[in-house]
Amino acid sequence: MTTPIIELKSVGKSFRSADGSARSVLEGVDFTLSEGEIVALLGQSGSGKSSMLRIMAGLIDADQGQVLYRGLPLHGAARGISMVFQSFALFPWLTVQKNVELGLEAQGVAPEIRERRAEQAIDLIGLSGFEGALPRELSGGMRQRVGIARALVMEPEVLLMDEAFSALDVLTGERLREEILGLWESGQIPTKAMLVVSHNIEEAVMMADRVLIFRSDPGRVRAELPIALPRPRQVESTEVRTLIDEVYGLMTAGTSRPGRTTEKEAKLQLGDRLPEADIARIEGILELLVDEPYHGRADLPKLGEETELTDKELLDVSIALALLGFAHLAYGDISITPLGEHYVGASNQERQTIFGCQLLEHVPLIAYIRHGLEQDRSGDLPEDLFLKLLRFTLDADDAERALRVAIEWGRYGNLFEYNFHTGMIQMPKDEAAVAE
Fold first, then answer.
1. I need a surface site. Which of 60, 132, 300, 339 has the fewest CB within 10 A?
2. What is the number of domains present in the chain?
């Protein structure tokens, strides 16, 4: 039996939206992180993954449920838990040495001890010789090494990594990931468990002993995939490729509505997030699917390699295609529908007409905007009206993203126009003229 280090029992968390209403981001989360394991957490943007990490680190409190560290309730930041952020989170006016020492200084560690420990951590992470450099003098990969050294200098038994490699180029991210795994496997760091939040499916499979799939609105664990392969793993091996395919299947299960898994939950709702997929990518993937070598059906991991899209970009496009009825998603594969085939062979004007019809049928937010414009005598409405509506269920950033996608899609489908100077959404000019 492995020893639990952190336990979450029926944890829930809500935040106040801009209009003062409560928005639930986590609900009924049960999770155990045990000694000797690396766990990866995947899910849609805004599904509450980062909030879960911050609760585990003691940076924010849960509203419901229990958070236990070594069997005791966690109140505030725990000394045995360190976190690495996507944004590096370095103080630009401090040197590498001082940035790494910061946590030790906050704990009141004597200057000579923290200097020695920081030097050891800097050396461990491969930055010896850069102790006196400022963050602006370092590359992105080196800045993230400073962030990791700052976490490791605390000698944590739990390391939480929130999209730690996503801001880096692919090769730098892979190299840094391999180095962290090397430190873990060799026992050079005292860390007993790691939790890695990621959008990168390959990264999750290469690192983790378990992969958890988070669902959205509110966030909770909806699937778990144990991985028994020994490390180091070979990315091109049949076993790894099969696991990557399986994770894609779990990520796209029930994606008529992003994050939902049952027939009852499949229909998109007015206040849901929309997949961040632009028109060019949507049409590009459809056109690829009908051509050789796919002939209407593709394995998502292979499609991702050919298009060089990130996992998030490919999943967003795939979910959009399924949402609009142009493709089906099942078991990590995408297959074009008869409507999708018809769309590819259509003229540009016919494509826009088909796109608009599918939006009105399947995307309630766009149908709501269009209906509002039809009912308003002026034929135009401020975008703020719809942002306020979305903020009842989404945070400010997600609301902005959802409306941005809705406007792009609606404009392409000739359902409305948008004035970038005034922020007004308007009826198409030809329809407005007919109405007058």
1. 132
2. 2
